[in-house]
Amino acid sequence: MPDSKPTRNLGLELVRVTEAGALGAARLMGRGDKEAGDQAAVDAMRLILNSIDMDGVIVIGEGEKDEAPMLFNGEHVGRGVPPEVDIAVDPVEGTTPLAEGRTNSIATVAIAPRGTMYDPGPFLYMDKIAVGPACKGVVDIEAPVADNLRAIAKALDKREEDVTVVILDRPRHKDLIAEIRAYGARIRLISDGDVAGSLMACLPETGIDVLMGIGGTPEGVLSACAMRALGGELQGKLYPRNDDELHRGIDMGYDFQKVLCLDDLVSSNDVFFAATGITDGELLQGVKYLSHGARTDSLVMRGLTGTIRQIVATHQFDKLELISGDRY
């Protein structure tokens, strides 16, 4: 195990990162420019990350250095002092909803002790199933869809036709959707945001019971960090997009048949996760602009204690601009 663990509660420092990202990106809502929204969030989040007393390495970031000049995989952030941590960050989960002014765009970041986060390398997709605490231990990603839905209904003491599945609305899920419909369960299709989808499956007030389907591998690692606090379960399998990717992965030592459980994705309970809404969604409210500031809605979680905080913050732009020198 690493010698230096993030035993200090970094959660409230971490939420400043996602708040900054959300405030940076939200002004681009509906303007049709995905790259600009993402870059605004990246710039704001990097500034705050570098102000935190930690020695952080980006394990899950915006891509390789040449492709992403900010928050790239392998970049060091923080003030260079203990604790030594791995960082997973998605400055804008849901760049298309942000650009189009739609729902469920959030800023997310997670921290875990150095060496405990799964590094998916260049492989961007993962088949997943995520459930809340009541269904922990009753699902199996390799089992038939109907068997998992039946087990979820039993664990939740629900009628089988009342189980609700959240799925990314993608052509690759045509067969999965047909199986769920044949079983008789309800489906909530989302355009983007499978971190939000995983969290929704853990929070009873959202009405979602399970996330299924193929989404992002980075989002899987971020979701796993949140699951440590939420007490839910996430299982995944790397998903090759084509034969070339499959063979390249095998040559690199990746096992596409291996079921990745929570301990594989993040092997420590001493994790922190934060998310702030950019646009309105089932999970979080988006940034709301006031006469001289804005209001944000965030979730902050600590795996070690299981503490989950919801933070509604009001930001005064004139004071922030005086401190940072940046325009808000």
Q: Which secondary-structure class do the elements indicate?
A: alpha+beta
Largest sheet: 8 strands, mixed
Helix/strand order, N-terminal first: HHEEEHEEHEHEHEHEHHEEEEH
Give the DSSP E fraction (strand runs of 2 or more residues): 25-35%
Taking pLDDT < 50 over at least 5 consecutive residues as the criterion, the unreliable ranges are none
Principal-axes geometry comes out as: globular
Number of helices: 10
State the share of residues found in helices, binned by percent. Answer: 25-40%
Distance between the termini: 41 Å
- Number of distinct beta strands: 13
Average the pLDDT over all residues and give the rounded result: 91
Supply Rg.
19 Å
Tell me about this structure:
By secondary structure, this protein is α+β, with helices and mostly antiparallel strands. Helices cover 32% and strands 26% of the residues. The protein contains ten helices and 13 strands. The protein has helices spanning 11-26, 34-49, 95-100, 145-156, 174-183, 194-202, 217-230, 243-252, 262-265, 317-324, and strands spanning 55-60, 76-77, 84-93, 106-113, 125-131, 164-168, 186-190, 210-216, 233-238, 272-277, 288-289, 293-302, 307-316. The strands form two sheets. Strands 1, 2, 3, 4, 10, 11, 12 and 13 form an eight-stranded mixed beta sheet that branches. Strands 7-6-8-5-9 form a five-stranded mixed beta sheet, with helices on both faces. Strand 11 and strand 12 form a beta hairpin. Helix 1 packs antiparallel against helix 2 (34-49). The longest helix has 16 residues, at 11-26. The chain is globular. The N and C termini lie far apart (41 Å). The model has no long low-confidence stretch (mean pLDDT 91).
